[in-house]
Amino acid sequence: MAGGEDNENDTIESLFDKLDKQELTPKASRASDTVEYSGGRGDVLLILNRFRIEGNSLCDIVLEVQGKLFPAHRNVLAANSRFFHAMFTSGMKESSQNLWKLHTVSACSFELVLNYFYTGRIVVTKATVEELLETASFLLLEPLKKACFHFLSEILAPENCFSLKILADKYSELCFSDQVRDLAEEHFQQCVENEHFLALTKDEVIDLISSDEIQVEKEEHVYFAILKWVKHNIKARKDCLPTFCRYLRVGSLSKNFLQDQLFSEQLIRDNNKCRRIFQQFLKQKEKHKVNSPSADTFRPSTDCVEVIIGAGTQYCVKAFCYDMKLKETFCLQDLPKTQINPDLVSIGRTVYIVGGMNGDLPNFAKVPCLRSFSFKTIKESGKKVGTKEWQEKAPFKTCRSSYAVTVFGNKIYVIGGRGEHWTFRTVEQYDPNTDFWVYVSPLNFARSDLSAVATRHYIYAIGGSSTGDANNARMLQSVERYDARKNKWTIVSPLNYERRYPETIYAHDKVFVIGGLGRNVDDILESSEVYHPAIDEWHLITPPPHLTSSYCNLLNLRGDIIMLYGGHGACKAVKYDDENDIWVDVKAVGPSDKIIFYSLCTVSLPRCYLNGLSPIPNDFFDE
User: Fold this and answer.
1) Which region among 85-94, 276-285, 365-374, 468-477 has the lowest average model confidence (pLDDT)?
2) Residue 623: Cβ within 10 Å count
3) Cα–Cα distance between 213 and 608 in angstroms, integer?
4) d(CA 182, CA 401)
5) Of 552, 534, 535, whose CA–CA distance to 543 is shortest?
6) Measured at the alpha carbon of residue 608, what is the angle toward residues 303 and 225, in degrees to the nearest 5?
7) Which runs of consecutive H residues, i.e. helices, occur in 464-503?
8) Cα separation, 564 vs 621, whole angstroms
9) Crossing angle of helices 107-119 and 42-53, rounded to 10°
10) Nearest alpha carbon to residue 78 among 69, 89, 67, 70
11) Residue 107 pLDDT more than 90?
12) Which end of the chain is flanked by fewer CB atoms within 10 Å, N or C?
């Protein structure tokens, strides 16, 4: 292939001038009377290419493709393609002809390939890749074929995976076919929304839905994908439904769902085989009330467990994952950098560490950084295991401290906060799909030291302070509500008490606000209150004990409001009884008392995602 730079303005004479200026490099030799010299040969091919482009008489063959003529050199063609080499050396009558017609390839793709023969370079685009693949396959150009599939792997996405699967199968590209399958399993719900899913064959659908690697939160998504495929052509496909139903994982389907579909879905109700299968499913559900269901009745991705994720604060860079059911703790990769007092939130099965202070910088400078740990499966030594890395994400636009962070609509919001000399009204929104931050509507009042919480329909910015430093703050009692649909903040009923840095949580359709600080850092508030969004009213509730503790964390564990509190000695836990307005002691939550020093959040994960994570060592929490 060519090593020189091709320029369409070069003439044959200018290319010869470049050739004349080349210097041959001597190579050391033991023989005193012999010296080997070497030089680049790239410009020779560029000269041949110019012969070709200008239709020079030194070209010895013309290729006709879709009526377009391409002069070329037999030696160049044969040196690049096994196809041409075989044709020119076959001894057949056609091998000596000066005009060849190629019927299998397009003129556009052949022009690109011919230029590649002479220059060693080719540009692949979405518009040309399919024709280039066909041409590369016909002309036996394995490097170009690999390049095309590399390009396809770069653009592979849920919306095109099944259409690209056709190419993988057509050219028997097993490696790319595995990539397509992995993506279809990882993003099953998105992939089946694409129209190309409907073009799969019966066997291809079975191959997909029978896989243990499908990542769905509910088995219902698999069931509805089956119905969608069948209903696309009911007359031709309705007989496939009983076969598909046998691949559903009954352990991952609720009894109520099975009963509802048995009576409401006509395709199930009117098909004797389907009806019997669903009736058998219901009998299995009754049987499992007495006996534990076998593991193969569950879709692995729906067998979820609640875990606590912890990320170190202060100078600790450790991170862990705690399985609350099995009481097992796993190591996550250490944080890449010190991130003092960051916020920890989750979206789906991805955990994000937001902001904090950098202990390596003077005066613990603010950092607008964002990192994520995504609990998804990757292939390692041929087996699927969990990811093991924290990924750097786009930083938010404004460097700030004392802000609030919450998640709403699968997006992260950074609200208010303080700069060097002022308090912010600005609010930023992060979209994980684009890895991009945008400003949304600002708060009505600039506020820092606030808390924020998301409910089903709104975000609430609660309390805080409007001016002054941490020890001379103008306290705020006001509360604002953000409507994402209208991109608008509205003032709602104020707190009973002004407060900074309260712990907040949403549970039982109410917003709970616990403790907080007064005007200075030593003024710890013991009062707590609850907000009823339906009636826009705040009511005082019994505060938890020991609100004056140095550290506390508020968690929603399967609907229970749990507060962890303590100091350097121990960590204790209390649960709020909403019905009786009391806090009751509970057994310690988590693997160690030291989790009080970690930023915490909870995530629901498939148990299989914990595969590949290592158990923590005995001294993990000793530092």
Assistant:
1) 468-477
2) 10
3) 9
4) 41
5) 552
6) 60
7) none
8) 17
9) 150
10) 89
11) yes
12) C
Check if the beta carbon of residue 135 is closer than 8 Å to that of residue 115. no
CA distance 447 to 401: 11
Dihedral pair phi/psi, residue 47, rounded to 5°: -65, -45
pLDDT digits (tens, 9 = 90+) for 127-157: 999 999 999 999 999 999 999 999 999 999 9
Distance CA 265, CA 231 (A): 12
Q: What tokens were used for 228?
A: 């969608």
Query: Which residue, among 527, 427, 528, has the nearest Cα to 481 in the 3D structure?
Result: 427
Q: Where are the alpha helices (DSSP H) in 23-128?
A: 42-53, 74-80, 82-88, 107-119
Residue with tokens 């020079």, as numbered in its chain? 56
Q: What is the pLDDT of residues 175-214, one digit of tens each?
A: 999 999 999 998 999 999 999 999 999 999 999 999 988 8
Beta pairing, strands 411-415 & 383-386: unpaired
pLDDT for 295: 53
CA quadruple 456, 304, 218, 259: dihedral sign:
negative
> Residues 341, 313: contact at Cβ < 8 Å?
yes
- Contact assessment for residue 468 and residue 519, using Cβ atoms and an 8 Å cutoff: no
Q: Residue type at 37?
A: Y
DSSP calls for 504-548: EEEETTEEEEE--B-SSTT-B---EEEEETTTTEEEEEPPPTTTT
Q: Residue 601: name the closest of 225, 264, 310 by CA.
A: 310
Cα–Cα dist 217/129, whole Å: 35
Give 448's DSSP letter: B
Burial class (CB in 10 A: 0-12, 13-18, 19+), 196: middle
Give the pLDDT confidence score for residue 381 in this predicted structure.
44
* Cα–Cα distance measured from residue 400 to residue 304, given in angstroms and rounded to the nearest whole number: 36
Q: Is the pLDDT of residue 13 over 70?
A: no
C-alpha closest to that of 448 among 409, 488, 405, 411: 405
Provide Rg for the chain, Cα atoms. 33
Q: Which residues of 488-513 are buried (b: 16+ CB within 10 A; e: fewer)?
A: ebeebeebebbbbbbbbbbbeebbbb
- CA distance linking residue 391 with residue 376, whole number of Å: 13
Phi, psi angle pair for 150, to nearest 5°: -65, -45
Which band of pLDDT confidence, cut at 50, 70 and 90, is reported for residue 33? low
Nearest to 370 by CA among 415, 414, 332, 422: 414
For residues 482 and 441, what is the distance between their CA atoms, to the nearest angstrom? 9
User: Which tokens go with 238?
Assistant: 């309705």
Which residue in 44, 102, 107, 100 sits closest to 76, CA to CA?
A: 44
pTM summary value = 0.70
Q: Report the alpha-carbon distance of residue 458 to residue 611 in Å, rounded.
A: 36
Check whether 428 has a pLDDT greater than 60.
yes
Q: 317-323: long-range contacts (C-beta < 8 A, 24 or more apart)?
A: 318/620, 318/623, 319/373, 319/390, 320/591, 320/598, 320/616, 320/620, 321/610, 321/613, 322/590, 322/591, 322/595, 323/607, 323/610
- Provide φ and ψ at 124, rounded to 5°: -105, 130
- For residue 610, what are its two tokens? 């914990």
In the chain, % of residues over pLDDT 90: 51
> At CA 294, angle to CA 288 and CA 296, rounded to 5?
130
